[in-house]
Amino acid sequence: MAVLVTGGLGFIGSHAVVELLQEGLDVVIVDDLSNSSKEVLSRIAKITGIKPFFYPFNVCKLNKLKEVFEKHIISEIIHFAGFKAVGESSSKPLEYYDNNLNSTLALLKMMEKYQVKKMIFSSSATVYGERDDLPFNEGMTITHATNPYGETKIMNEIILRDVAISRPDYAITVLRYANPIGAHSSGLIGEKPSDIPNNLLPYIQRVASKKLNELAVFGDDYPTTDGTGVRDYIHVTDLAKGHVLALKKMVARTGFHVYNLGTGRGTSVLELVAAFERENHVKIPYRIAARRSGDIATSYLDVTLAKNELGFQTKLTINDAVRDAYRFEIRGSKLDKTKLLKKESIKK
Ligand code: UD1
Fold this sequence. Notes:
Distance between the termini: 45 Å
Bound molecules: uridine-diphosphate-N-acetylglucosamine
Oligomer: single chain
């Protein structure tokens, strides 16, 4: 029996795989490497001592998925795989709807065919859209997100809800994430966007390591304590552990369930920059820039339900996250360089 983890080499997926392996569970990863690298697999093995099964293809490919379901007895699915760049989703909506919806549909078809009855889906606080009634809770009516990426999360949630209603023997859990940050404490896995980062902490990391000159703070005139945007930043390891709790809860349960996973607290852009500087003894040059279109002033989650029903509680702080992120920035790139040097010497 194994847990199928789609997108298991990505930022959140890889941390979840580590936690699942450390719980003694067997893991099968499907990841098309479109925003990850095979090197992550070796690093997962280095951390856990276990190399999970890995298949490099896109989850939408039904024939290839079938082979995986034929080969392994899958007991649960955790579906992380998906395109996630907000800006890009507005310029390539078709790609986003195609990939992010068809991957879920393909998995649901496999569930039907191979009698797999349990799935966890990666959703996002982005489904709450722009609203003033903070903190966001699971009972709120979901209408529209501010971009196609967010819409794919809402549509996936609707599809999964309807399938769960039609199949009373299924257990489907949707996890709505706050902003995941940080990296594994080993410094071996973390967030590594292949392009210039869109998200705040990866951008700060690159400024800290002098790969980028300065941070642009998108707006200082929001109605927040210091005028900069406020978000609920959760350490990726705490978030990953939330998946193990959700998985355990699903074993003896059916139905459709939705949980917010966050800290319940907001941190501003400037507070995160200050924490990074203080904890890592580096200076982060920044300038105040115009607001980024589509951004909201404040977002943080009510996490009472996850606490009460899953026993979810965050243990790591913003300070832990900024230290771990910087450790990964330094160690991760060092390892990359060593690898490059090795490759070079093989060529010679
Ligand atoms: C974004 C996505 C959200 C997704 C999440 C994943 C948008 C609108 N939303 O959230 O759907 O689930 O990432 O983590 O992109 N900031 C700067 N300078 C930067 C980058 C960011 O000032 O270079 C500010 C932003 O204005 C915001 C905060 O930092 O106030 C966090 O931004 P970001 O890390 O991009 O996350 P979100 O926008 O909250």
